[in-house]
Amino acid sequence: MSFLPLTASRPDKHRNRSAWNASWEKDLETWLHPPQPSVRGPLLYTKDNAPGWVPMVMEIVRSEILVLQNDICERAVMKANLTEDWVALEPARRKDIVLEALYNTSCIGPDMEQYRQWCPDMTVEALGNKGEPYIKLLEFLVRSNSDSRQEITLFPHPLVDKVFGLEALQVPMHAPKSRLERCYFVTLVIWRIYLAFYGLTEVSRFKKLPEECRKAIRSSIAVNKEERHRARKNYIQSSGDTRYCWGCGIMQSLLPGDKKLLACAECKKMGVSEVKYCSRECQKDDWKNGKPKPHKLTCGKPPQAAAEGGRQGKLTCNDKTIPSADPSFKRSLALLHQIQRSTATGADYVLITKGNDDIGLTIPGKAQKDRFLEMKQQAMKNGDVTAVKGILEMLRSYMPFIASVSSGFTLLDLKEQLEREYGVKL
C-alpha cells in the first residue's frame, strides 16, 4: 500500500544507486513533519479486519521473517569482534556497505522496495555515519529473540508507531500488514549489511510467493480515493519528531531555551535510549498513569518486550542475577544473547550451538552454584578475566556430560564462546 506521497519516477537503481537512494531519502523526510493531534481512521489491514486473502499473505511473510531473524541472531553471536570491527570502519566505507544493503534488499521481488516507505530509519546517513545505530539494531534483535524462537521481533519507531497504533506492538503475530512490511525490510537490511560487511553473498533464500499471493499484496492499494485521503491525513496529523517526551509527546525543539529531554535512568542502563521526559512531573505521571501501560510496568525493558507485557522482564537490571554493567564495560552481542537464553530457560549457563539445539546447564549443589553465579555476576559486571577463567574451569568438569548430549560441542567451542561473550583471551 502506497501511503507516503512517493516520487512517481525514480532514477534507475541498477544504474545509479546513489541518485536512486537520494530520491528515496527525500521521500522519507516526509516522516519529519511537525506533529499534530492524532486522528485515527481505517488505515491498516490486520488479521481481524482484512479480506480473506490478507491473513494468508501475512503468515507467509511472518514465517520468512522468523527464519531470517533466527539466522541473524545465530550468526551475529558467533562472530567475534563484530561490534568493534564495524565501529572501527571509516564512515565512508560503512555508508557504502549500507547503500549496497539497501539496494540488494530492494531488489528482492517487485514489492520489497515499496516496504521502505515504512522505514524512515533505514537511510545511509542513519546507519552508516556512525557505527552504533546498526549495532543497536543487532543488540535489540538479539535481546528480543523470543524464548521459543517462534515469534518475530518487531522494530519500534516513535513516528511509525503513532501511525500503526500501539496495538501493532502488543501482539506481533497479529501485527498489521504494513507493520510486517516494515519488519521484513528492516530485518533484510540488517542481514544484507552483515553479508556485505564480511564479503559474503547469498542466492535468494526466499520462496517465490504463489501468483495469487503476489497479486494480493499488490492489490492492497485497491482502496477508494476517500479512504486513501483519510489515511494520508491521519499520517500527516500523527507524524512527530523522534526527539519527544515519552509522557506528553512534546518535541525537544519546542522546549524553552537550552532545555533538553532527559532519559529514564533504568531504561538507559539496559540500552533503551528512546524513553525520555521533558520534566520530573511528566515522568512521575507516566510512571503511574502512562498509556497503554504505566511505565513502572515496562521500565528497563526493550520497547517491544514492554509492549508485549514484559515477556523479557528477567532482563531488567532489577534481576538479582544480572548486575548492571560498569560504564567502562560494553556487553557484546554474544553476552546479550547469553543473558536472554539463560533467563528464558532458567539455566545457569547456556551453551550456544551452531544449530538451534542450545544446551542449558544447571550447576548442582548449593555451594558450587553460589560460587558459579558469583563469578558469572562479576564477569557480567565488568568482564573480569579472572572470573571468566573461573567459569571456564568450572564448566570444564561438565564436559563429559556435555559430550553425552551434544557430541559436536567441544572444550574449544566453550572457550571460544566465553571469549566472544566477554572479549577476553583465554
Structure description:
There is one protein chain. By secondary structure, the chain is an all-alpha fold. Helix content is 50%, strand content 2%. It has 19 helices and 4 strands. It has helices at 17-28, 53-77, 82-88, 91-106, 124-128, 132-144, 158-164, 167-170, 177-197, 211-218, 225-238, 265-269, 280-289, 303-307, 333-345, 366-382, 385-396, 399-405, 411-422; strands spanning 262-263, 276-277, 349-351, 359-361. A two-stranded antiparallel sheet has the order 1-2.
Give the class from helix and strand content and strand pairing. mainly alpha
Query: Count the helices. How many?
Result: 19
β-strand amount: under 5%
Q: List the uncertain runs.
A: 34-47, 166-174, 220-242, 303-319
* N-to-C span: 53 Å
Instruction: Please tell me how large the radius of gyration is.
Output: 23 Å
Tag the structure with descriptive keywords:
426 residues; mainly alpha; two-stranded antiparallel ribbon; 4 strands; 50% helix; 2% strand
State the gist of this model.
The chain is mainly alpha-helical and 426 residues long. Helix content is 50%, strand content 2%.
Task: Give the SSE layout.
Layout: H1 17-28, H2 53-77, H3 82-88, H4 91-106, H5 124-128, H6 132-144, H7 158-164, H8 167-170, H9 177-197, H10 211-218, H11 225-238, E1 262-263, H12 265-269, E2 276-277, H13 280-289, H14 303-307, H15 333-345, E3 349-351, E4 359-361, H16 366-382, H17 385-396, H18 399-405, H19 411-422
